[in-house]
Each structure stands twice: as C-alpha cells, then as structure tokens.
Amino acid sequence: xxxxxxxxxxxxxxxxxxxxxxxxxxxxxGTIVWSFGFAGQMDRWAVIEDGGDRVVKxxxxxxxxxxxxxxxxxxxxxxxxxxxxxIGFYYDLNAERATAEEIAAAIVRADEFIERxxxxxxxxxxEAARLWxxxxxxxRAKYGDFLTDLSGQQYPGAAEVAKNIRLVLKKTFPGAKFSxxxxxxxxxxxxxxxxxxxxxxxxxxxxxxxxxERDPYNDDIWDYHDSPFNALYGGVRYLHFRREYSPExxxxxxxxxxxxxxxxxxxxxHGDLFEHEGGxxxxxxxxxxxxHSYGWLDSHSLACVVLxxxxxxxxxxxxxxxxxxxQEGEAPAGVSVVxxxxxxxAVVGDTRPLADTLKELGGRFNARLSCxxxxxxxxxxxxxxxxxxxx
Length: 391
Fold this sequence. Notes:
By secondary structure, the protein is of the alpha+beta class. The chain has helices at 100-143, 158-172, 198-205, 228-233, 247-260, 279-286, 299-308, 355-360, 382-389; strands at 2-5, 8-12, 18-20, 32-36, 42-47, 54-57, 71-73, 79-80, 88-92, 179-184, 187-193, 212-215, 218-224, 238-244, 269-270, 296-297, 335-339, 344-349, 364-366, 374-378. It contains 9 helices and 20 strands.
C-alpha cells in the first residue's frame, strides 16, 4: 500500500508505519523476483534484460493464478524480499540467478501460453454468446406471451419485477392467493397460506433471483450475473419465500402427530429422548425431514416441518358440476363428513363437484389426510357444512 503526498510517495511497513518509498536499484538479467498472491500463492520470476523492469514467469503458467499474465512490469518502488508485506512483487538479490537458457525457455512458454489463452478466451466468448442467444430464445418462447418485457428499461426496479412474478404465479397456480411485495430496491418477498409447497413456488418463481457466486478472492463478496431470463423479464438479488398454514390445517396435523406420540402434546420433549410410547411411530413419520435434528420436539413444530413438503394446493375445476343427490334431502353420492380430531372435521369422498362450495365455506383441501383426501373444517362449522351439503 502506498500513498502520494505532493511529489513524495509513502508506503506502509510491517510495523504499520508509513515510510518514504525508495527507488529500487537497477536489476541485472536473471535476478529472481517473487510474486505473492491470494491464499499464499507464490511464483518465481526472472528479470529479462540488464537494467530492465520486465520479468517473465519461471513457474508454471495458469489462467487461474492471481498474477495470470506471464509477463509483468516492475514498479519503480518494488521492494526487496526482506521487506515483504502483503500481495505483490519482491526482488531477491540473494537467490540463485536464472540462466539465459532458463529465461529463453520461459519466454517461449509465455508466448505459447498467451497464444493459447487468447484463443481459448475467444472460443469461450463465442460459446457464451451462443448460449445467451439460445437462452433468450427459450425464455421468449416460454414466457413471452404473458410476461412484460423489461429489457428496454435500463434499471427495472423491484416493483416492475414483482408484477412479472405475480403473472408467473397466477399462471402456474391458478386460484391460489399470493402476496408479492417489494421489500427494498433489490428484494421481493412472496408470502402465501397453505397452497403449494415452498419448493413448488421456488421452482415457479426462483428464476427472478439473479444468479450469484462467491468471489474467488474474497468470501465476503458475491458476484452477480444476469441470465437471459433476467435480462428480458427482470430480477432481484434477494427473493424471500414464506409459507404459513391455516389453524385448521395445523390443528389437524398436530392431532395426527399427538396420536402417534402423546408426549409431543404441550411442551413436548427433548429430541434425544425416544424411549416412550409412540417413539418409533413418530420416528417413521419424521425420518424423511430434518425434524429429527431438532433439539426440542412438540406437535406444533413437527406439524410445520411435516407440512412443509405437503402440497395443499388444488387447481380449480374448469366447470363446477352441480352436486348429485340420489333423492331429495339425501347426501350427495360418495360424500360424507367425519370427525377428524377434537377440533376439526373432514369432508371426504367425491368432493370435486363441490369444490367451489366447500371453498366458500372456508374449507382447506388436503390430499394427505389420514382418512383420505378431503376438506378440513373447524368443528365449529360442522352444522353449517352439513346444512350446505344436505348431510
């Protein structure tokens, strides 16, 4: 590190003090120079000509090196190896000098490396352009008929991107309700209750999050690269997905879990303790989730974990057929109301023709109920449900 005040340049030494920079001496051909890069990478170089400032790399050449170019021009303030302090080049007057033959061979390798590198970079650039064009065509073919093209805007904001996210979710999950909100200039949150799983929504809308990777030289920095999709339809750096569950769904799943293992009721128990009634059955129920690693297990937290991979979304029927009745005053064929738990009832059977009615009554469809696929209601609504369905 160096700082220039008027005509004098200063550098920081090992003691953290700023000292005046001194011109390096003239270096003869073959003088060894060391480079120090990221993560302790060290390479050996040699001065090419007497009194010159050009050096050639004697170590193996690689495009991934911190100092990847095989030639380098030394700064006038390049310091001796004894003063090494951080990343950079340092000359070494005590090291065995490189021979003329060694330097000549290094120059040949360097020229061949540059030629090969330039050719590979040109090929990579052409391939990247081809893939970009291909990705653009695919994105237009898949989304161009219903998404807004934002490529004409220099800096489309999160508000414009949120509109496109709503269009994707509406097309992917017709009838489902989502809250898509801009949280900051580069962050959007997507919230919903019940409906599709987190993974399903992330798959549908995740392409609006700009691809990123950690910087190879600094773990604290992320490098962001637009995809062809983002260039057309926008993107943000951060997408937050948050799924909630309705009380009826949670209560029904809690009842299932407590039936398997009564000790999960109330405060629950420590995750290491499975030596009680229902422990084995509970383990079978949660073994495919990460709940077994929880420090404390209770029916509510377990219900949320199990429901996380359970889709509660049901696409609306194209046409709702009228409810079928065998005789006036009798229940629709194949439909019944059952007690699901102390707090919930379920309507099961051939409920597809009744989907709109059951939804208007406040029901939630669940394909994985212990009694079979059906609609969950609070027990407080039992009379209303039976009356509406003539049950």
